[in-house]
Amino acid sequence: MNQISPSRTFNVLWLQGASCGGCTMAVLEAGRSGWFEELRRFGIRLLWHPSTSEETGTEALAILDEVRQARVPLDALILEGSVARGPNGTGRFNMLAGTGRSVHQWVTELSAMADYVVSVGTCAAFGGIPAAGINPTDATGLQFDGDDHGGALGAAFRSKAGLPVINVAGCAPHPDWIMETLAALTTGDLAASDLDGYGRPKFIANHLAHHGCSRNEFYEFKASAEKMSERGCLMEHLGCKATQAVGDCNQRSWNGGGSCTKGGYACISCTSPGFESSRNFLETSKVAGIPVGLPLDMPKAWFVALSALSKSATPRRVRSNATSDHIVVPPSRDGSRKKP
Questions:
Q1: Per the structure, how many domains does the chain have?
Q2: Is 189 in the same domain as 239?
Q3: Which of 98, 109, 244, 271 is most buried, taking the most CB atoms under 10 A from its CB?
Q4: 8-state DSSP, 246
């Protein structure tokens, strides 16, 4: 990312709702020099963050009051974690300590004052983990309640700059997704047309986690792992949703080298609404032996036909390696043409 020279600082206020704090832990890894250096380079002033700011108590309340009274301009309001609206719409399940007001109240009031509103993480975007199951706290996302438009701010909400809530989804999001979204806002390079139907920036949503996966050769031949630790494709038996999950997770590895599938764990589509409701993340739901969750842009009949053809042509090397935790048959080195 290139350094810019803003005419003034770009003021960001970060609040936490019903959250594990994982999104904050993720963003601290942004950039080679760390998140705070990245913020400085783009002229972003972090007014306050409940976990990383030095100000606490009355000092923190003074900052919030300055923003609330519009004495300090609010360029972007960020929420990490879902909005707990209960009980009975009061929001008192999640109070902002020392203010006598709920996070729901703060978010509702400050969203109307912000040029941009950004949800960081799937909890803030769609409700996420706190909204799973019977949802006793009435947790929701800022502008989505699961798949449905609405959420805490309502479907019609638009920020002062005319944008809906920008959803940097993920559990947790890649640190670069968060920082690049903020950087794009500082330069005016993120418009409503740059968001998909769920409010996710298209630079994230126009990719699938499947793209760049190190297991793609096994996927192409439908050579599947049958249990954890094996090297084959995780889609057929072990619940992997990478062909349906938006995100470039396997193209820009986490912290220099990792991703879920590289670590041997199935993609759970954590950038999507409702991912938390899966009954078993490591089991593929099937009907008549065919996975229910198929690649987003492939008709079921095509997939069935391709699978049958691919499996009939699977090389012995690929078939053998798929159900092993290490390479048992290496590629031929002598140039000979061996039968599958």
A1: 2
A2: no
A3: 271
A4: B
Q: Please name which of 316, 138, 157 lies closest in space to residue 223, comparing C-alpha atoms.
A: 316
CA–CA distance, 113 with 123 (Å, rounded to integer): 22
Whether 169 and 20 share a structural domain: yes
Map residue 79 onto helix, strand or coil. Answer: strand
- Does residue 48 sit in the same domain as residue 177? yes
Q: Phi and psi (nearest 5°) for 258?
A: -110, 160
Tens digits of residue pLDDT in 270-283: 999 999 988 788 88
Instruction: Give CA torsion, residues 91, 97, 103, 106, to 10 deg.
Output: 120
Give tens-digit pLDDT for 213-226.
999 999 889 899 99
Q: Is the pTM of this model over 0.85?
A: yes
SS3 242: coil
Count CA atoms within 13 Å of residue 66 on its CB side: 13
Taking Cα atoms as reference points, which of 223, 241, 245 lies closest to residue 293?
241
Among 155, 186, 205, the domain-final residue is 205
Nearest to 199 by CA among 159, 251, 258: 159
| Structure token pair of residue 173 | 């999001």
Angle between helices 57-68 and 103-111 (to 10 degrees): 40
Cis check for the bond before 172: say yes or no (omega within 30 of 0): yes
CA torsion 295-298-304-309 (nearest 10°) is -100
Give the range of the structural domain holding residue 272, as residue numbers without chain letter.
Answer: 207-323
The pair of three-digit structure tokens given for residue 103, joined into one six-digit string: 């996070």
Q: According to the model, what pLDDT value does residue 307 have?
A: 74
CA distance 59 to 62: 5
Per-residue model confidence as pLDDT tens digits over 226-248: 998 999 999 999 999 999 999 99
Residue with tokens 């820009």: 252
Q: Which two tokens stand for residue 328?
A: 């048992």
